[in-house]
Design goal:
The chain is of the alpha+beta class. It is about 30% helix and about 35% strand. It has helices at about 1-35, 55-60, 80-85, 95, 100-105, and strands at about 65-75, 90-95, 105-110, 115-120, 135-140, 150, 155-160, 165-175, 180-189. It starts with a helix and ends with a strand.
Length: about 190
C-alpha cells in the first residue's frame, strides 16, 4: 500500500508538472499573441481622399463680400471718381476717401438657373436715406480661364480669388493717352 501511495504521489507530481508546463506554455503563447498585436496608432491609416479645391464660381458665390481696399496706380480725385465733382484731396488711396456709407455695403454673387446675378445691401448706413436697403446690382460672368470677371458692362481682371479675398483691377484711359489702374479688394463677410 505504501508503494501505491508513493506511486500516486509521483503521478500527482508528474501531473502537476505537466499542468504547470501547459499553463506556462499557454501563457507564453498568449503573450506572443498579444506582443504581435500593435497599438492602433501604429497601424497605417487609410489616406483620406483629398478635398477638392472649390471652383472660382464656388468661391465667388459662397458668401457676401465687402470692399476693404481701393487703390489707383496714379493720384486721382476720388470725389470726381465717386460723384463726378472734385473733393480737393487727390490720392492713390481711394478707400480712405470712400464715404462710410459706401464702406459698409456688401455684395453677393448668385448663380440661379443659369443667370448670374449680383445683389447689394446698403449695410448699416445709406448715403441717401431714400435708397432701398438692398436690391439688384446687375449680372456677372467669369471668363473660361476664370481671370476676367465681367460685372455689368465692365471687365475686371481677377488678381486673387479665394475663400476670404476677391481682388480685381481695371485699366482706364486717362484721356491723354495714358493708362491708370484701379484695384478693388473685397473681403469675406
Amino acid at each position: 500500500m505504501l508503494l501505491d501511495k508513493q506511486k500516486l504521489n509521483l503521478l500527482k507530481q508528474a501531473n502537476m508538472r505537466t499542468t504547470n508546463k501547459i499553463i506556462t506554455m499557454s501563457l507564453m503563447v498568449l503573450g506572443m499573441a498579444f506582443a504581435g498585436c500593435s497599438d492602433k496608432k501604429d497601424d497605417p491609416q487609410p489616406t483620406p481622399a483629398p478635398t477638392p479645391t472649390p471652383t472660382a464660381t464656388e468661391y465667388l458665390t459662397a458668401h457676401s463680400w465687402k470692399m476693404t481696399a481701393l487703390t489707383s496706380s496714379v493720384v486721382i480725385d476720388w470725389g470726381t471718381y465717386w460723384y463726378g465733382s472734385p473733393n480737393g484731396a487727390p490720392t492713390t488711396d481711394g478707400y480712405s476717401q470712400t464715404p462710410a456709407c459706401e464702406k459698409d455695403d456688401t455684395y453677393r454673387f448668385f448663380t440661379n438657373s443659369g443667370v448670374n446675378s449680383v445683389t447689394y445691401d446698403e449695410g448699416g448706413s445709406k448715403c441717401d436715406p431714400a435708397d432701398p436697403q438692398s436690391g439688384s446690382a446687375g449680372t456677372w460672368m467669369l471668363s473660361a480661364s476664370n481671370t476676367i470677371l465681367t460685372f455689368g458692362a465692365e471687365d475686371w481682371t481677377i488678381d486673387a480669388l479665394g475663400e476670404n479675398t476677391l481682388k480685381m483691377h481695371k485699366d482706364y484711359n486717362n484721356g491723354s493717352g495714358g493708362i491708370y489702374t484701379v484695384t478693388y479688394t473685397f473681403s469675406k463677410v
